Amino acid sequence: MGEIIADFLVETSKGYYCSYGDFYVDPLMPVQTALISHAHGDHARPGHHHIIATNTTTIFMRHRFAKQELGSYKAIGYNESFFLAEVKITFFPAGHILGSAQILMEYNGTRYLYTGDYKLQGDATCEPFVFVKTDVLITETTFANPNVVHPDPVEEISKLATTNHNMMLGCYSLGKAQRLTHLLNVYCPEKVIYVHHNIAPIHRIYDTHGFVPLKYEIYNRKVMKDGVNKVYLVPPLTFNSYFRAKNVIRVFASGWKRLQHNNDLSLYISDHVDWEDLLQCIEASNPREIWTVHGDGAMLKSYFEGKIVVRNMAKTSTF
């Protein structure tokens, strides 16, 4: 069992940096070498000289960042280890979206696991989360609050079957839209799914590289004017711009309560861990220390006081 190095991964103005391997994890600004956990825009940015990610993450990034040089990408499979300097790196499924990865970094006998965004709930549209033993768990804390309990997604999506009114369903284009399409296909089969033109290319990538078939049609301006049981999936900006849309029920899929306000139905479907799933991950990974990122880890620190060291990696926030 090696020593835990407090500055193994540090937050800089460009993002989380590991000097021992000379690389960044999910950097916000262009860097020489970037490890990317998944393709959401708050984790994957263009401009890096070398981008290392899972195959599907690189496909999403190539779609979104057309000006990025193709030769800068290096796709790595899950469970395939490689070295940057003396740091051994391995990707494991994170269960967040298709291609999302936890990043295990091993150095001098100590294991540091960066979770990225992750979820334990079942999701047929992406690889299931894999528990990994580690000495340091570097975890997101988006919903690290005992009062947050994500409901069963099947029960949530089934609420949409209680009405045959046409529906505008707001959701994030990558990951959430495909998960919702599959859930609607399976549990609300009477619904006809239409997707916004900005979502359609992501659906096509899932069609090619995903695990389950998605039944949907591309939206056009005429389809919602008549008939019933039609669901139009739109990205957040479109959803917000049509806040006065008539003759449709407005729904937004999210784990955040604030995003359920002023909608006709609530739909609590999240792609992040809630409190209980976070604790389950910690128990399974059995870390000696927990470093928190992407959220507020104060309640986690209080919960493990005297048991496990919990510290916040962010320079700009404190417990």
TrEMBL record:
Keyword Nuclease part of the UniProt annotation: yes
InterPro entries associated with the record: MBL, RibonucZ/Hydroxyglut_hydro
Molecular function, one GO term: exonuclease activity
UniProtKB keywords: Exonuclease, Hydrolase, Nuclease
The protein, known as: Exonuclease
Protein source organism: Sphingobacterium pedocola
